[in-house]
From TrEMBL, chain A:
<feature type="compositionally biased region" description="Low complexity">
    <location>
        <begin position="1"/>
        <end position="32"/>
    </location>
</feature>
<dbReference type="GO" id="GO:0015031">
    <property type="term" value="P:protein transport"/>
</dbReference>
<dbReference type="GO" id="GO:1990460">
    <property type="term" value="F:leptin receptor binding"/>
</dbReference>
<feature type="region of interest" description="Disordered">
    <location>
        <begin position="1"/>
        <end position="60"/>
    </location>
</feature>
<comment type="similarity">
    <text>Belongs to the sorting nexin family.</text>
</comment>
<dbReference type="GO" id="GO:0005158">
    <property type="term" value="F:insulin receptor binding"/>
</dbReference>
<dbReference type="InterPro" id="IPR036871">
    <property type="entry name" value="PX_dom_sf"/>
</dbReference>
<dbReference type="InterPro" id="IPR034902">
    <property type="entry name" value="PX_SNX4"/>
</dbReference>
<keyword id="KW-0653">Protein transport</keyword>
TrEMBL record, chain B:
<dbReference type="InterPro" id="IPR004148">
    <property type="entry name" value="BAR_dom"/>
</dbReference>
<protein>
    <recommendedName>
        <fullName>Sorting nexin-30</fullName>
    </recommendedName>
</protein>
<dbReference type="GO" id="GO:0035091">
    <property type="term" value="F:phosphatidylinositol binding"/>
</dbReference>
<keyword id="KW-0813">Transport</keyword>
<comment type="similarity">
    <text>Belongs to the sorting nexin family.</text>
</comment>
<keyword id="KW-0653">Protein transport</keyword>
<dbReference type="Pfam" id="PF03114">
    <property type="entry name" value="BAR"/>
</dbReference>
<dbReference type="GO" id="GO:2000786">
    <property type="term" value="P:positive regulation of autophagosome assembly"/>
</dbReference>
<feature type="domain" description="PX">
    <location>
        <begin position="68"/>
        <end position="189"/>
    </location>
</feature>
Amino acid sequence: MARPGPGSAPARSAAAEPPSPMESTEPEPSGSRPEEEEEEEEEEEEEEEEDESILSPPEQPLAAMEDCLAKKMEITVSEAEKRTGRNAMNIQETYTAYLIETRAVESQSEGQCAPVESLWRRYSEFELLRNYLSVTYPHIVVPPLPEKRADFVWHKLSADNMDPDFVERRRIGLENFLLRVASHPVLCQDKIFYAFLMQEGGWKEMVNETGFQLKADSRLKALNATFRVKNPDKRFTELKHYSDELQSVISHLLRVRARVADRLYGVYKVHGNYGRVFSEWSAIEKEMGDGLQSAGHHMDVYAASIDDILEEEEHYADQLKEYLFYAEALRAVCRKHELMQYDLEMAAQDLTSKKQQCEELATGTVRTFSLKGMTSKLFGQETPEQREAKIKVLEEQIQEGEEQLKSKNLEGRDFVKSAWADIERFKEQKNHDLKEALISYAVMQISMCKKGIQVWTNAKECFSKM
Amino acid sequence: MPHPLATSSSEEMGPALTPSPDLLLPRSIADKDLSLPNGTPVDTSSPASSSSLLNRLQLDDDLDVETRDLFVTVDDPKKHVCTMETYITYRVTTKTTRAEFDLPEYSVRRRYQDFDWLRNKLEESQPTHLIPPLPEKFVVKGVVDRFSEEFVETRRKALDKFLKRITDHPVLSFNEHFNIFLTAKDLNAYKKQGMALLSKMGESVKYVTGGYKLRSRPLEFAAIGDYLDTFSLKLGTIDRIAQRIIKEQLEYLVELREYGPVYSTWGGLEVELSEPLEGVSACIGNCCTALEELSEDMTEDFLPVLREYILYAESMKNVLKKRDQVQAEYEAKLEAVVLKREDRPKVPADVEKCQDRVECFNADLKADMERWQNNKRQDFRQLLMGMADKNIQYYEKCLTAWESIIPLLQDKPETK
């Protein structure tokens, strides 16, 4: 299973979260809440204040890596359990719950084992956590979750969500997800993530109270931005192109691999028929009998060996799948950048048009045909007072717009900077992980070849005695 | 492989005491057959009789090469395009020291039809012997290009094997028709002669061999019959399995051929991973080549031998049936005699002749069966070991390919 690349987090990653461009629209949380959550909320607000104070985050020292949660805590998803319950609509449903166990790693001097904390989470809660993370940290390539439904399976593999093998693979995938978040220099410091690991009750409410959903951009808006943005950042365009290609090549690879597995399974299993027929044949032979009989046994062994081989190979497929989903996370960052760029361009455009209006009013010339121009021609000019007032309002708006543009520009630059830092970190992680995955795949193939040689050598030995 | 120990006794009696099939032969040939076992080199190998049969089997072919005096090979297939038909001829080369041949070396061209003619002639003239099978006239599976290189080569091998088996047989190798087949410039002249004879005699041959039904086979032959039934059945299954494996392998190959290049495409997207991914792609390519070789070897070497033995078992069954008929004829005649002349104990000459024929047939058949069993054991040992070897080679090639890319994947030190 893929481990998060340990050394792949670059030191320059900002520890603090830069303000989201949509933050100003976030409504203040209201209403009475349980005390402990209030505390949590306060901390969040503090963080936000901090964020504002450091618009361009200073480069953090190497400490970021040492600070990450994965170093301070052991995290495992140790168990999966099938449960039945009633959902919000009061409809009976079956789901799988996963046991998350955490244990603080004590400093070496103390040498004592901290107690293990454990709690249950279901897949939908992991989904909520990831949603929250990706909305809250738009500049970060947020680790993906393992697939909800088994995909790219070959025929022997069950696509059933409750299939024990699938549940087991998902358990490993979820653990991997938590480890990746915990070792991420920025994400590991998130309070909600920490609470996800430590606090079973009230967590969902806590997430919802962050109001992250309001920050989420609608797909439509994103689509709009894609088509209308005028000056896209070349680096992000390339990255987006790369993630598209990566996604398509990995999904192609996974599809073909599933078919390859199917066929390989066939080749091995058909050899199993030799086992049976050699044994039947041996019954009528004198000198050849023993050799045939035992060679038949080796053919049975050969046919059976493919099950383990392909099961092991499924881990490789899971590693590839993680990167298939990572491609989507990468694209989300690009999409966010596009959106910000679009916002910026819209604001600039608005400002330009306001400036033009102001100029028109001040000089009395109408450069372009407009309804206003028509009405003024038809109904006579406005009074100078009215005009003055309008100009004043416009000038105020222009000033406001200019400030907004400035802050959006800053925001954008900041986004690009931190996003690019995380993308660099991601690239290193990706290169490291995939190389490891390829090595383990090659090792698997080598062991399969060795097994094959062994079985056929044994069979040959039997044949030679005939 | 000749086994004079097992067959010499029956050989000596064989041709002499089986009059009816020899009707088709010119008298001189039949006489020649009679004198056969004495001066022939087959007998010179008898010093080996001190060693057991098993030991002989385990000896290398060297010994046989020394004692062999007849070598036949089939090679150099040629396509002939005439106005009427298109066909393939094969060169049949003979090298011999046998006195029956005027020259030490012959080279003739024969087509499938000629082999077929030879086999029919052998069956007619040596009904008590097991005649090796010819490859099927047409390939059963699908429409195969009869003139494709693979088909011609597979057939050439099978025809070569057919002649080698006859050459190795202590009786069949001295058959006059075989001699004609190997040496005659114009085989068609002999063919026509044969046809004329057959049309005259054909009816009587049928009459002689048919019409009687055996009540029960002697245990020993019943056992052979049962063995052959099971053997053909199992071999048929093995043939189907082998074909299925080849089919699965080819489908696997198709997918594998698509699989490798995807890594290459991916490599094109990457910077640091480019080399490892290209490496994996090339490695899968090598595995494809190895797999292709494996299934080619299995198609060309494994399947034809299986087919030959399936047909061989059928030939054997036919001989067994013929034996039954001869025995049935004898029993029927004996019964008739017993019913008619209970008082007279003397058995008429033709019934006695019949009894001789049965005994002779039994002896020939048993000897051929034993020879066949030994051949079969050797052939299958070789065949199955070959199959294992091919698979081992395949895996070794793949192993080398995968091992060679490990350094490529590890080469660049990790960034941290």
